Amino acid sequence: MKKKETHIFQSEVKQLLHLMINSLYSNKEIFLRELISNASDAIEKLRFHALSNPALYEKNGEFNILISVDKENSTITISDNGVGMTRTEVIENLGTIAKSGTKTFLESITSNDPEKNRNLIGQFGVGFYSVFIVADKVTVKTRAAGLSADQGVFWESLGQGEYTLANISKADRGTDITLHIKKGEEEFLEDWRLRNIISKYSDHISLPVKIRTKKNENEGIHWEKINKAEALWIRNKSDISEVEYKEFYKHITHDNNDPLVWSHNRVEGKQEYISLLYVPKCAPWDMWNREHKHGLKLYVRRVFVMDDAVQFMPHYLRFIRGLIDSNDLPLNVSREILQDNRVTHSLRNALVKRALQMLDKLTQDTEKYQLFWKEFGLVIKEGPAEDINNKENIVKLLRFSTTHNNSIEQNVSLDEYISRMPKDQEKIFFIAADSYAAAKSSPHLEIFYKKGIEVLLLFDRIDEWMMSHILDFQGKKFQSVSKVDDSLNKLMSNDAYKDKEEQKTLQPFIKRVKNILGERVKEVRLTHRLTDTPAIVITDTNDMSTQMVKLFAAVGQTVPEVKYILELNSEHILVKRMIDIQDENIFSLWVELLLDQALLAERGTLDNPNQFIQRINKLLVA
């Protein structure tokens, strides 16, 4: 052993290991599943790299995952002859726990929710460290394929904040992981226990998992294959149990949760491929991180090619997990060729449709779909803008809060909304605001509440942008209630427009208000859509909405100044009193106050809130 060194883990590791050992895993046997999955990945990566460099096989193309037990020394060793690791890779992969976000990981741990804590482990790439649940010391010996025997690496840790690193000689490529089992965990040294775990969690792995046996003292060592060693996805669906599908999902994702739903499909003919797609139950912690890795595992004729083939799923379906095994893609495929390959585009289109069909089927189970929507609804909302070809199918998946369900929960489909529409309602009405409370209490809705007409309440930041890409649904156009539209006038009482004399009488008043506000507003006019509010502001049909302005400003885009239309409720007592005010100073204060009130209700903020307060104070003492 040469160049033996002691390294310290990153600062949060000691706390992380303590949490993992005492909080995250209630099912201790998971450690073996994690190690076998890692060994399987290492062998698949070697197969792929060997396509362009066969020398990496080192004259041994027979792959195995081997498990041996030494009861005398209380150790379990898991060995693979996969790609192995260099010294640098050992430091990167084993010396840094949760390297993509340890701090975020620790912040996600909540001591009052053990179930949630346990489910976090697979999301942060720390599955290897589950070994410390049953072991008080772990030793790793590894050598990268293609390197000489003297370039092996030794890694060892007690799981207490530091690890030892050294150079060693290792004749065979691959990795050997030896677990020194703790006192009290001796059950994992029993042959029957290990066999049971492997059959339960690793039966679907396409590589042989073997355990060392010795029938008697006169016989040598034998290796007995335990699992079926047949790729699960190539088997007939009727032969695969629900448990096997779930365990395979956990194998490829390192997620401890069961998937919400899955779709297994074999296509033959012009294109031949197999796809197995899963919808997770929980969103990954870094789903909104730009560096979040997503995509499907790609196989070509059963040969692993890459882990995160993003070319097969659009960004709005980045939560879909699973794999595709194609017979048509060239084996020497590179990422650049894959992006431009005609077959790839065809496969992508087919997989997207399959994923959307899977989600559409999930909508039939209301409870499950609501679980899905709470986790991934915001992501689906990106779809109408990103995927024009499948827009109609995506829109069917959308869920909304409305004035009908009287709840912040987004659980109303557009099909449900249309089924409740009055026969004479021409459009689907919606309002966008900063929050559910702001949307629900908006003065724009007063006439709709009065008439019992349902309105979609949009309060996610992405909503206004999403609606700009959805023109209609089932022949019904969408209409913002905060914009000018003739269909809104039809909702109002006909009597409100019969008294033309009243309109003429109030024209001087309207002109007087407009003279005070000048170019700050586009127009001043009367409205009968209000019942309890004296004034509101709306935007013209083709002008940018308030929420869209906020969205553009939030991403640093310059936007034109919005000129609102001020609408006054002539039936409101404040407006009636204003009509009779002769003092221009007092009248001007009231006009400015009503405009500020309307702007505050519409935008949630004012350019000069102090001036607004001063006007109120002046009118209170006038």
Q: Would you mind describing this structure in some detail?
A:
With 622 residues, this protein is of the alpha+beta class. It is built from 22 helices and 22 strands. The protein has a 9-stranded mixed β-sheet with strand order 1-6-5-4-7-3-2-8-9, with helices on one face. A 5-stranded mixed β-sheet has the order 10-11-14-12-13, with helices on both faces. Helix 9 (342-362) runs parallel beside helix 12 and helix 21 packs across helix 22 (609-621). The longest helix has 23 residues, at 30-52. It is elongated. The termini are far apart. Residues 98-102 and 114-125 have low confidence and may be disordered.
Structure keywords:
9-stranded mixed sheet, alpha+beta, 22 strands, 622 residues, elongated, 5-stranded mixed sheet, single chain
Summarize the structure in short:
With 622 residues, the chain is α+β, with helices and mostly antiparallel strands.
Rg, rounded, reads 33 Å
Separation of termini? 92 Å
Gross morphology: elongated
The number of helices is: 22
Fold topology:
Elements: E1 2-8, H1 13-24, H2 30-52, E2 65-70, E3 75-80, H3 87-94, H4 102-108, H5 114-120, E4 135-143, E5 152-157, E6 162-168, E7 174-181, H6 191-201, E8 209-213, E9 222-225, H7 242-253, E10 261-267, E11 273-279, E12 296-300, E13 303-309, E14 321-326, H8 335-340, H9 342-362, H10 366-380, H11 383-386, H12 391-397, E15 401-402, H13 414-419, E16 427-432, H14 436-440, H15 446-451, E17 456-458, H16 463-467, E18 472-473, E19 476-480, H17 486-489, H18 500-517, E20 521-527, E21 535-538, H19 546-554, E22 564-569, H20 573-579, H21 584-603, H22 609-621
Parallel strand pairs: 2-8, 12-14, 16-17, 16-19, 20-22
Antiparallel strand pairs: 1-6, 2-3, 3-7, 4-5, 4-7, 5-6, 8-9, 10-11, 11-14, 12-13, 15-17, 18-19, 21-22
